[in-house]
Amino acid sequence: MDVSNKEKFTLSSELIEYIDSCKQQAHFKSFLINVLQRIQDIHGYLPQCLMEETALRLGVPTAKVYGVATFYHMFRLEPQGKHTINICLGTACYVKGAQRVLDAFKSHLNIDIDETTEDLMFTLKAARCVGTCGLAPVVMIDNDVYAKVTPEDVLTIITKYRQS
Amino acid sequence: MTEQNMVTLTIDDEKVTVPAGTSVMHAAEKVGIKVPRLCYHPRLSVEGACRVCIVELKGSRNFIASCATPVQEGMEVITTSPSIREARRDIVELILDNHPKECQTCERDGNCELQRLAYAMGVRERHFEGKRKNYDNDLSGAGVIRIPNKCVLCQRCVRVCEEVQGVTALSQTHRGFDTVVMPAFNLPFAESVCTYCGQCINVCPTAAFLEKDSTRALFKAISNPEMTVIAQFAPSVRAAVGEGFGLEPGISMEGQMVTALRKLGVDVVFDTQFSADLTIMEEAHEFIHRLTNGGVLPMITSCSAAWMKYIEQFHPSILANVSTCKSPMSMMSAVTKSFYAKKMNLDPDKIFNVAVMCCTAKKYEAARPELYGDNGKPYTDAVITTREFVWMVKAQGIDFINLKKSEPDSALGFSSGAGAIFGTTGGVMEAALRTAYEKITGESLAEINFNAVRGMKGIKEAEVNIGGNIVKVAVAHGLANAKTLMKQVEEGVSPYHFIEVMGCPGGCIGGGGQPYAGSNSIPLDTAILEKRAQALYNIDEKKVIRKSHENPEIQRLYKEFLGAPLSEVAHKYLHTHYKQHFPQGI
């Protein structure tokens, strides 16, 4: 259901050092979330093999690690694209045609919301108002803001990232 | 208990004084109110998940969960108002709303805590029809299967697996409506650290966990005229099977079991107590050998199937400490397809060995390739749990309680008292000590009962003077207790010479395949386990022969077939080796 990634990674020496230092603390199990956050910072998601390695190293049963990883929305269990496309579907963007912009991204990338392209270039996400309604409809790619986007602009935007 | 540590509160206008820290639920029991409950279990931590046990608390805006609320001085609690009754009914109705309406075709029909609760709460109609979860069943496990749609998220399985068994194969995953109890990474049971002990089945209020069915295979074998069906039944089964027919716990139904197996169509009935005697012969001699030849100590018993899977996954570095003896079940099956087949001129391939066990993990053991015969097939063809046996007997209309008693067949059917007590925690140790003592000293035991290793304490210790040498022994039941002893062994600081481990609380009598708790009892209740254990001790007391090495059928088996304990033939059929299994447990 959740775990399709079978990529093999091992914990970096920094992470190993960090986990070992956590183990010295009282209530060391409570550091699990911090460890998982650091893994996600490096890999963009939580690879299964690293959750297993963390479980053994930190001494928290693997089932518990998985329970925590699935409980919090901030943790991602699938590899993320190199670029994250956030399409604002807030009220202002929506009435200015954000749905059509979203549909254009979906058809050009051939993925749905919260999915990642097979080449791991793009992850598509919907946002609820990015706070710049004057620029509606707004699309954010990583930290770049695109204002007044039309469906016709989409291919140009995607191509720019593919070529960079 | 000093005055300051006592708290006085009012429950339903009645004053009650209880120790500080007592839950409102337990305080209410003092005034004759057993607040309805679902997720609460006395042997597990308090979860407060189901909200069924709510009560009214004066001054509180909301109803409170009585299991999770400690008493306070001057509290005024009401447990029986109309609004609390209606709220509880609605809560149960909402739980049912996300539960399949399959009672009549469910394995737990008539034995289901949720059914009983819905009846007691007065749910007579279903008002809420909402979205319902829809997950696939996990049938991959050799011993235990998982039916997530029947789960009510009470978390008893998660808690028993972690707190009593120290396995933590299960966790609550995801959140809100999408919450599911599952192994890590939603992997199939077969790829998880699950030991198949079946305690999740015992504590589950519904049928979210079940044993893997083996009754079809057995019915098929029985109806095949070419097959000789040979049955064996574990010591602990006779001590609990009556409960499946509504009898009080603690009544041995040994004779009725033999008769019922014959009525089911089994051709030959042997007794696992016989092969328990055989295990003791091998295990006691292995222990003596290790003790006197500088072998690896402490020696650890190997007859509990869940325990073996556990140690292979959780403590692989100390597998050399584990006795190489197979379990009594596997010894019996190996002997029937070798010695008995030859003696009776039977083709081993035409023998169907069925074992009636208290255990779900024995299904896994039977399927282990290490325990296959030379022909590449398992020695044990099917394992049915006590519950499956009860159902088969009911399905055939056999009047179990009123059956005439009968004796197991000879050759592999006679047992000593030592074989009987195998089914309870401490029994293997006591049986082994009876034989080891006499073999080492050459003297007859004056006091045959080793009371220090009896009882339901989690870890028991004893020192036995064997011919001037002090032998230190320990007994653990429930895998979390075993973990404590194994850490000592791993660190090289274990003070013991011999350790008995049984995977389930109480030993086999508390196995994951035993009858479900009845309407006035709770699963894993220590009082019930003690009664089952007493039934086995009573069998032992009544036997003339109470030591395995004095069993004449055991002596004959060695004379005609095995030679001596630990001989080459004995090693071929009665011993095995273990290796690390993955995934590694923590």
Report what the structure shows.
The complex is a heterodimer of chains A (164) and B (586). With 164 residues, chain A is an alpha+beta fold. Chain A has 2 domains: 13-71; 83-163, Glutaredoxin. Chain A has 7 helices and 4 strands. Chain A has helices at 13-24, 32-43, 48-58, 62-71, 91-95, 98-109, 154-163; strands spanning 83-88, 122-127, 139-141, 144-146. A 4-stranded mixed beta sheet of chain A has the order 2-1-3-4, covered by helices on one side. In chain A, β3 and β4 form a beta hairpin. Chain A is elongated and about 55 Å long. Chain B is α/β, with parallel strands linked by helices. Chain B has 2 domains: 3-80, Roll (Ubiquitin-like (UB roll)); 216-574, Fe-only Hydrogenase (Larger Subunit), Chain L, domain 3, CATH 3.40.950.10. Chain B has 19 helices and 17 strands. Chain B has helices at 24-30, 82-97, 113-120, 156-164, 199-203, 215-222, 235-240, 254-264, 272-292, 305-314, 328-343, 361-366, 386-395, 417-420, 427-441, 479-490, 526-542, 552-562, 568-574, and strands spanning 6-11, 14-19, 54-57, 64-65, 76-78, 144-146, 171-173, 180-182, 209-211, 228-233, 268-269, 299-300, 351-357, 382-385, 459-466, 469-477, 498-502. In chain B, β7 (171-173) and β8 form a beta hairpin. Chain B is globular, with a radius of gyration of 25 Å. The model of chain B has no long low-confidence stretch (mean pLDDT 96). The interface between A and B is medium-sized, with 19 and 21 residues.
